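Colleagues,

Please find the record for the three-part complex below.
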Amino acid sequence: MMFNLLAMPINPAFALMFGGLLMAFIPQWRVRKFIALAGPVLALWLWLQVDVFGSYGGIHIAAIGLDLEPFRFDGLSRIWALIFIIGAFLNAIYALHERDQVQDAMSALYGGAAMGAVFAGDLLSLFVFWEITAITSVFLIWRSGTEAARLAGIRYLVMHVGSGVLLLAGAVLLHGQTGSWAFEHIGLETGLAGWLLLLGFGIKAAFPLLHTWLQDAYPKATITGAVVLSSFTTKMAIYALARGFAGEDILIYVGAIMTAFPVFFAVIENDLRRVLSFSINNQLGFMVVGIGVGTALGINGAAAHAFADVIFKGLLFMSMGAVMLRTGTTKATELGGLFRSMPFTALFCLIGAGSISAFPFLSAFVTKSLILAAVADEGHWFVWGVLIFASAGVLEHAGIKIPYFAFFAHDSGKRPKEAPWNMLLAMGLASFLCVFLGVNYGWLYNLLPYEMIYEPYTFDHIVGQMQLLLAAIFAFALLVRIGWYPPEIRMTILDADWLWRKPGRSFLIWLNAILDRLFGLVHLGVARRAQNVGRVLTAVLSPHGAFARVVPRGALAGWTATFLTLALLTAYLAH
Amino acid sequence: MSLMSAISSISGLRDLLPHAAALVVVIPLLAGPIAVILAKARLAWLWSVLVAAAAFGLSLVLLGTVLGGETITYEMGNWPAPLGIIYYVDSLNALVISLVSGMALLALLYGWPMVEREIEPKKQAMFFGTFLICLAGLIGVAITGDAFNVFVFLEVSSISTYVLVAMGAGQNRQALTASFNYLILGTIGATFFVIGVGLLYMATGTLNMADISRLLADGDNDRVVRAAFSFIVIGLGLKTAMFPLHTWLPNAYAFSPSMIGVFLASTATKVAFYTLIRFLFSVFHAGAPFETAMFDYVLAPMAITAMIVCSVQASFQPDVRRLLAYSSVAQLGYMLLGLSMGTVAGLSAGLLHMFNHALMKGALFMAVGLATLGLGVIQVSEMRGMGKTMPLTAAGLSIAGLSLMGVPLTAGFVSKYYLVIAALERGWWWAVAAIVVSSVLAIFYIGRMIEAMYLQKPPSHGDDPVIVVRSPILAIVPLYILVAANIWFFFDPSVPKGLADSAATLLLGGGAP
Amino acid sequence: MANSKPPKPKRKPAAPAKPKSAKTEAAPVTDGIHPAARPFLWVGNHGVQRGFIWLVGALMLVFIGLDYTFNRHGHFSWEAAKGFYAIFGFLAFTFVVLMGWPLRKWTGRPETYYGDGPYDGADEGEHDV
C-alpha cells in the first residue's frame, strides 16, 4: 500500500499546505523559514514527477457518497501550478526577514490552497480550496494591525466567502442539472447555475463593480502580505474562468472594461500600492479578454500572461514593499528621489515596470501580444482598440508612475537604507525571470495548454510597440513639462465600494430604525386584535384559560390561536 | 463503520436486560426524588451522573438492538397492546433516546461547576432531582407507543423544565418571566395536543398509536380527524418552537441556568420534533390530502420563514445566548423543511440535522456558559479577545460555530448537504436558495463572535490581557467531546445517517417517495 | 535594443558631462547615498530630467521613421498607416492623464473620508528616515 502511494503522483499543493500547517506550530523562526523555502522546492519536485496527464488519487467520501478528484494534472492546471510554485518560492525569500508566525503559516496555506483549487477536478474540491484561500489570505491583511486593515479585512472576507457561497450554490444547481460534480467547461447555457458560478469566479477575478475588495484591502495588507496576495487569488480565479467559461463572448467585453477603467483611477491615486492594485485589475482584464475569445491562442495568451503577471506584478509589489519597509509609506506625495539610497530596488522596479509595460525582451511583450493577436484574429476591432489604449494606460500608471514618483521625480530628501538582502535577492530573481521569459519565450510557450505557432519578435511588432511606448513616454514628459500632469495630492479616491460604504450603510441604519418602529406598531396592532380572539379561544379551550388574561403577553396565546385557525382551515380545505 | 459495530456489539447485553425499554424511563423517574432526599448537592450530583450514565447505557443497548435490525415492543405490566401501554423502540426513537440520555450525561458533567456558581446551595439537590424527572419525561415521550402517555410524559418533562428555567432567577430575575411565558405557551401547546388526542380517541376509540394508525388508514376524510390533526400539529409545533410559535424559546434559553440551556437546546425541541414526526408519519398517513396541504402551505413556508427571519434576528442580537436561541429556531426551520418535503431523503436529512444540531448547539451553549462563568460574558461585544483569555473555550466555540455554518469537515456540512440534495430531488429550488441565504446569515452571526474573539484585543493592561481564565476541566471535557463529535460525524456519519435513513424509509412505508 | 527596458543607461549620451561632475563633486559629504548609486546621481539633476523629453522625442521619431521602411501586415487596415501606433499611444496617454483632472474633482475626498483612520505607517518596518 505504502509503495503504491509513492508510485502514484502526489499533489504538489499538499507540500505547501503541509508546510503551512507545520509552520503554524513551530515557534522557531529559522525552522519556519526553512520550511517556507523547502515547501515550494518539494512542490516543484512533485510537479516534475508527473509525466502523464490525468487525474490521480481520487477520494471516495463515504459520508456523503461522493467522489472527489483533488489532483487533475493537465495542460491547463500544469502551468498554473508551476507559476504558483515559483510565486510561493519568491515570496518565501522575500519574507525571510520577517518573524511573524501567523503570516508564515498563512502564506504557505494560502498558496497551497490556491494550487489545490487549480488541481481540483470537481466543483466541491474547488469550493473547499476556494474558501481556504479566502480564510487564510485575510490574515495577511489583518496582520498589519491597523484599524483600517481590520475593517478592510472584514469587507474582504465577506466578499470572498460570499464568492465561495455563490460557487457552491452554482455547483449544486449544476449538479441538479447534470448529476455530476465534475469541473469542466460550464458555459452560460447552463442558465442560473452558470451565472452563479460566473459571478462567484467574477468576484475573485475582480470583475468591474465586484473589484472593490482588491483596491480596498491590498494596500492595507502587510508588506509581505501584499506581495503574497498579488500572486494567488486573482490568478486562481482566472484559471477557473479559463476552465469553465472559455469562449463566453460576454467575457470579452467584461475584460475590455476591466483593462480600461482602472487606468483612469490609477492616474490620480496617491498611494502607490493602491496604484498597483488598480494595475492588477487592468492586467486581469487582458486575461479575461483572452478567455472570452476562447481560441487556442486566446487561452494560451491568458495562461502565459497570468504566468508573467505573477512575476512582474509580484516584483512591483516587492519593490513598493521595500520602500514601505524603509520609509513607512508608499504615498507618492511623501516619496521621490529614492534611487540615491536604494539603487538596486530602483533598478528592479524599473525592470518590473518595463515588463508590465511590455517593452520588447521583457516578459509581457511575449505574453500580452498573444491576447492581442487572438482578439485581432477574431475581428473584434473595437476591443482590440481598447486593449491598445489600455496598454498605453498601463505604461502610465505601472510603467512610469510607480518608479517615477518613488525613485525619481523631485527629491523628497529621504535617504533610507537599501532593502534587506533577502528582498533584493527575491527582486533580483524575479527581474531575472522577467528578462528570461522575454528572451526565452519558447520555454514558456511549450508549457502552454494548447499547441500554437506564434512568433512575437517580428520587425513590425517591435516597431509598433516601441512607437506606442515612446510616444506615450513622450506625452508624459510633455505633460509634466507644461504642468498639465495632475500633481499628486493626499486624498481618498472614491470607487464603487462607496455605494455600500456610505449610502448603503446609511440606508441600512435608517432601515433598521424604521423597521424597529414599524414592527413595534404592527406588533401592538396584531397583538391587540389577536388578544381578543385569543382570550375567547383560550378561555374556551384551555383549562388554564384564566391565566391568559393575567399574562402580560397574552398576545402570544392569541397568536397561537390564530395559527391554529390557519392550520384548521388548511386541513379542512384540502382535497 | 467502527462506531456502528461497536454499538451493535452492545446489543448482546439485551438478553441480560430484557426490561431495558422500561428501565430507561423508570430509573431516572424514581431516581429524581432520591436525589432530592440525598440533600447534599455533591451527592445528588454524583447520583444524577450515575443515573444518567445508566440511562445512556440502557439506551445504547436499545440502540444496539435496533441497529441489529429488530424493533422492540415492550408491554408495560404485560398488558397486551390495545388496552395496556406499550413501549416501542425503532430506529427513529432509538436515535432520539440515545441523544437525550447522552446529552443529559454530558450536561451533568459539564453542569457541576456551573450549578455550584449559579444555583443557591439549598436548592442544588432539588435542581438535580428535577433534572432527572425532566430526563425521564423526555425519554418517556420518545419511547412510549401510547398517545395519551405521550401527553403525560410531555407534561412531566415540561413542568420540570419550567422549574429548571425559573432557577436561573439567581443570576437574572428575568428568568422568572421567561419561565412564566414558557409555562403559559407550553401549557397551551400541551392542551392543544391533548385536545387533538381526545378527538382522535373520539374518532377511533383507541389511544394506542399503532392502532389509531391502522384505523385511520380507512376513512381519513373525517372532519374530526382533520381537527385532531390540526390541533396536534399546532400543539407539538408550539413545543418544537416552530415559527411563529417560537416566542417562548429565546428568553427561556437565555435566562435559564447554563447547564439547562445546554440541555434544553440540544434535547427538548428535538424530542418535540420527534413526536411531531411520529404523529405526522406513523399515526397519520403522509399521503393524506390534508397532510400534504399542511406540508405545502403551512410547514414548508413557515420553515423557510424561520430559516431566514430568525437568522436575521440572530444577527441583530447583542446577547450571545439569545443569538444562539434565535439560531436554534432557524435551525429547527431546516429540520421542518426536511420533514415537509414528505420524501424519504428529506425526512432523513431533517432527522440527521436534528442529531447534528443537538451536537453543535450543545457545544455552543457549553462554551458560552463557560465564557459567562469565566468572564461574565453576556453580550457578543464582551467576548473580545477571548481567543487570548480563554483559548480552549474560544476554539471549541469556533469549531462548533463552523459546524453550525455547515463548513466541510464538520457534521453540519453533512446534514445541510443531504438537505440540499433532498430539496433538489423534490425540485424545490427556492428551498435551496433559502438554505444558502440562511447559511450566509449564519456565517454572519457566528462570524461576529469569531471576529470578537480573535480579532479584537482583550481588555489588557500593557501587552498582557487583564485576565487569563482557566476553565474547569470538568466542563471543558464534555465541551470537547461534543466538538470532537462534530468532526467525527463528518467522517463517519454511518450511525445517525443509517438510523435516519431506515427511520425515514420505515415511516414512509418503505417505498420510494 | 535589449537594454531599452531601464532608460537609465541610455540617457548618458544625451546628458552633458557638466552636471554629472558638478553633482558628484558636491556629493561625497552627503549622507545616506548608496555607493552603487553614486555614478548615477546625475539622473536626479534637474537639467537631465528636463532634457529627457528630447531623448524620448528623438527615439520616437526614429521608430516612426522605421515605419516607412516596410509595409505593416496588420489585422486591420488602419494599422498600416504610418506612425499609427505612435499617434494612438500619444492620444491615449494624453487622454488618460487629462481625464485625471475632472475625475479627481468628482471622486476625490479627504483622506479621512471613510473614518477608518490612516492605513499607512503600519507598525512595521524601520522608517529610519
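Strands of chain A lie at 54-56, 59-61, 66-68, 71-73, 492-493.

Comments are welcome before we finalize the supplementary table.
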